[in-house]
Design a protein that fits this description.
The chain has one domain (2-111): Dimeric alpha+beta barrel (Alpha-Beta Plaits, 2-Layer Sandwich), CATH 3.30.70. It is an alpha+beta fold. A four-stranded antiparallel sheet has the order 2-5-1-6, covered by helices on one side. It has a two-stranded antiparallel sheet with strand order 3-4. 24% of the residues lie in helices and 35% in strands.
Length: 119
C-alpha cells in the first residue's frame, strides 16, 4: 500500500535552515533517504521551500484569486514529503518515527487513495 509521509515543523521550533544545526542534521536526512531507497519502499520525495514562498490559488465567480502564503495559518507547516510503498500502516509509522526531525516535528502518515482504472 502506498503512503505519504508529510513532514511538518513549527518554524519557531526548528533549526535555522541556514545555520549550523540544520547543516549538521542534513547527513541524517541523506542517511534516512538512503535507508528508504535500500529497503525498496521509497517511491519519491522532495523538500519544499519555506511557507513564505507559497501561493494559494482560489477561483471564485470565475475569477482567479492568488494570495501569498499558505491556505491556513497553522503552528506547523509542511516542509516536504516522502511517498513510500509498504505492506502495512505499522510499517509506514515505523518509517515516520525514524525521521531525523521527529524530536521537534511531526509526520502525518496518510494512505494514498487507489482509484479504479478508468480504462
Amino acid at each position: 500500500m502506498r503512503y505519504m509521509l508529510l513532514i511538518y515543523t513549527d518554524p519557531n521550533n526548528r533549526p535555522d535552515p541556514g545555520g549550523p544545526e540544520a547543516a549538521a542534521e542534513m547527513p541524517r536526512w541523506f542517511a534516512y533517504t538512503e535507508e528508504l531507497q535500500r529497503s525498496g519502499a521509497l517511491l519519491g520525495g522532495e523538500p519544499l521551500h519555506d511557507v513564505a514562498d507559497a501561493t494559494t490559488v482560489r477561483v471564485r465567480g470565475g475569477e482567479t484569486i492568488t494570495t501569498d502564503g499558505p491556505f491556513a495559518e497553522t503552528k506547523e507547516t509542511l516542509g516536504g514529503y516522502y511517498m513510500i510503498d509498504v505492506d502495512t500502516l505499522d510499517e509506514a509509522i515505523d518509517w515516520a518515527a525514524k525521521m531525523p526531525h521527529i524530536d521537534y516535528g511531526t509526520v502525518e502518515v496518510r494512505p494514498i487513495m487507489e482509484l479504479p482504472d478508468q480504462g
